Amino acid sequence: MKLSKRIVGLLAIGSLAFTSCQTTDAYTGETKTAKATSGAVVGGLIGAGIGALSGGDSTERAQRALIGAGIGALAGGGIGGYMDKQEAELRRELEGTGVGISRSGNNISLIMPGDITFSTGSAGISGQFYPTLTSVAKVLNKYNQTKVAIVGHTDNVGEQNYNYRLSQNRAKSVADFLRTQKVAAQRFQVSGRGPDAPIASNGSEAGRKANRRVSIQLAPMN
């Protein structure tokens, strides 16, 4: 019953969006709906329906319906602009935190240095970093039409298996915290790559420091 009410609500919102976003052609007097708006609305309603039919219990189906609505709206309404807005908000929220932000096409990467995110040799998140991750979660919840890949990395010092485990556990710690902030778990892909993907030379302390990190990579759902 609750799921049905959610879908009915989405349909009502879609109908309202069509009505409120119509414009009148100044030359013909014809009423039209903007293509980007109609594409987003139709896509969202289709996505909601697909989401509602998948999943397990009613709660899971409801969550998938809402995420499905987001996927459809994203496909219909313009991916680039959506990611532009998300990037801008991330930059505002994370200014001065030490988190690096980069953009490649429609993919956004957040680089969280290990020395400010974790205690040395530990997968426990430093207490002072909680507000930063809370800010990340705030934006992820607002822009919920993106996949979230969380990847841990280390330098090449020490036993290799230990580095793999540490990188995996650090990535998992970040994902676990974001879940406590209501970021949907089904959006996550969590992995640890140990020393396999350095971004600097491990031949210097500065390079090793740069390589000890967790990245959050955001990409449009498809």
SSE inventory with pairings:
Blueprint: H1 2-20, E1 22-24, E2 31-33, H2 35-53, H3 58-77, H4 79-94, E3 100-104, E4 107-113, H5 114-117, H6 130-142, E5 146-153, H7 160-180, E6 188-192, H8 205-211, E7 213-220
Helix pairs in contact: 1-2, 1-3, 2-3, 4-6
| Envelope shape | globular
Helical coverage, percent range? 40-55%
- Class by helix and strand content? alpha+beta
Which spans of ≥5 residues are poorly predicted at pLDDT below 50?
A: 15-42
Name the quaternary structure. Answer: single chain
The CATH architecture of the largest domain is 2-Layer Sandwich
| Share of residues in strands | 15-25%
CATH superfamily of the largest domain: OmpA-like domain
Please tell me about this protein's structure:
This protein is of the alpha+beta class. Helix content is 54%, strand content 18%. The strands form two sheets. It has a five-stranded mixed beta sheet with strand order 3-4-7-5-6. A two-stranded antiparallel sheet has the order 1-2. The chain starts with a helix and ends with a strand.
Short description:
The chain has helices at 2-20, 35-53, 58-77, 79-94, 114-117, 130-142, 160-180, 205-211; strands at residues 22-24, 31-33, 100-104, 107-113, 146-153, 188-192, 213-220. With 222 residues, the protein is of the alpha+beta class. It is globular, with a radius of gyration of 21 Å.
